[in-house]
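Thanks for the sequence, V.! I ran DUF2913 family protein right away. Repeating your input here for the record:
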Amino acid sequence: MDKGNLNVSHLAWCGLVALHTARLDGQIKSPAQDNLFLTRWLASAEKQRRFPKALASDISWLLREGRAKGLRADLPGKLDYLWQAESGNLSDQNDLFRLLHAFHAVKLADWACMVLTDAEWSGRRQQKLSPGVSGIYLSRTAMDNGFCDEGRQLIALPARITGELHALDALLNRSGWRRTKAAGDDPLLHYLLAVGFTEE
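Predicted structure:
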């Protein structure tokens, strides 16, 4: 998928409007029908060349996802992510919303994304993480205490990360977040910071 193509927000918006219209018309009544509708819509868009040639790779990627993964492809979620990430609306949201949006993107990229209890985070029952599985693992306590009521970040969020850091950084940056390596003996420990966040 060409994630740098700004026109992809128009494609995503058209797909979401078509889906919403079909729901209002009573054509769609389940998530499985959402995926089937969008797969067919994308196939028609590709065949009829409804969008500029620059979007061909995006359409092909979404179509492959829908056909290969079925309901797990979450095509409505992918289109919503692309629309918000590319339309500029995402930057107007608070830190927590943008972080949750980034996590959704991470899951769409087939990464594991888990929030761990204190016992799973450290101590004898600490979760064993496999370097062969791309994933991001956060502390529940840090998530609970990390944001004010308005969704603004209050503390640097610790996260253990396995997988390709460059790919994760691209997803985080699109949502207005960044990652920094933590000092110390834990090679998987990093901190997640919202753009503009400074510890007081």
